[in-house]
Amino acid sequence: MTSLRDVIAHEESVLAGSARLRSIHADAVRRGRASVAAVMDESGDSDDAETRLHRLYAQTLEEYAARVDREVPEADARTWRDLVSALPGDAWHDLLRTHGAAGAARLLEAMDLARNRTVPPAALDAALTAAARTCVCGYAKTGTLPKRLCQACAGAVGAAWVAEEQRLLQRAMTLQAEVGRILDEATSAIADARSRGEDAYGTEQVALARTRRKLARANRRHREERSRLDVSRWKELAGLARRASMPAMSAEARRARHRLGMAQLARLALHTNHDVQARMSSRARERGTS
């Protein structure tokens, strides 16, 4: 199966053969990255940023394609179109097919890297500020990292980890959809296990282990989408979550590796999780009316 790496490898060979094409591409990268940074600075809402960035990506690719139309040899342009047509269905690939030309995949990748670098760690800072009044480990108050995070600070870290994971998954839509289905099944399985009472812990651990395996397979299946994401902040927050005083969160964080979906699974594993409790209440109402 053709991959985005195949397209980029072809683009690199095309760009290597023309100094003028390289100059146009470099200028498009500079302009595109500056535009991405401006959108990220102006957009306080993540949904608004996603919508504006998608329009910006399409517009930038169209402008680049118009500029290189007479610069790319027809044989190279045809090979590029054939490679892009063979890519699997994906929001990025659709952008390339609809708006792109040789060099567009590298341009899109450069713009998305600029977008990743503009994301501040504000979610954790805000959560720790809110946790400071109930913090007993000192992390929220002084910034000094203890061996174990108290519940207030661990909760702040967990919320920031989940927020970062959701931000990343918004740019990997097929993986996002599969992770959503897996976690919904996990919510029901955990709720059912806790509702039974008898051997609830063992049944819940089986459900968690099964979910971890499903998430691992999903991340492998969508490795191409995932390879475009900068997960450095996600991994940093996972490292902090390992210090949580709540065993369920720290255990899932230690098993996270690079599997997107694990932050949300760590939250589901907590006995205070509202989604699981709501599902349990729903199950109880269903039994009461049956």
Explain what you see.
The radius of gyration is 23 Å and the shape is elongated. The protein contains 16 helices and no strands. α7 packs antiparallel against α9, α9 runs antiparallel to α15 and α10 packs antiparallel against α11.
Please tag this protein with its features:
2 domains, elongated, 0% strand, mainly alpha, 16 helices, 290 residues
How widely separated are the two ends? 50 Å
Radius of gyration: 23 Å
Helix content: over 70%
Total number of β-strand segments?
0
Write down the domain tally.
2
Mean pLDDT: 85
Residue windows where pLDDT falls under 50 for at least 5 positions: none
| Structural class by secondary-structure content | mainly alpha
For the biggest sheet, the summary is: none
Element pattern in H and E: HHHHHHHHHHHHHHHH
Beta strand %? under 5%
Number of helical runs? Answer: 16
Shape: elongated
What is the secondary structure topology, with strand pairs?
Layout: H1 4-16, H2 19-42, H3 46-68, H4 74-85, H5 91-99, H6 104-117, H7 122-131, H8 139-142, H9 151-169, H10 173-196, H11 200-221, H12 223-227, H13 232-241, H14 247-254, H15 262-269, H16 274-289
Helix pairs in contact: 1-4, 2-3, 2-6, 3-5, 3-6, 7-9, 9-13, 9-15, 10-11, 10-15, 10-16, 14-15
What is the compact description of this entry?
By secondary structure, the chain is an all-alpha fold. It is built from 16 helices and no strands.
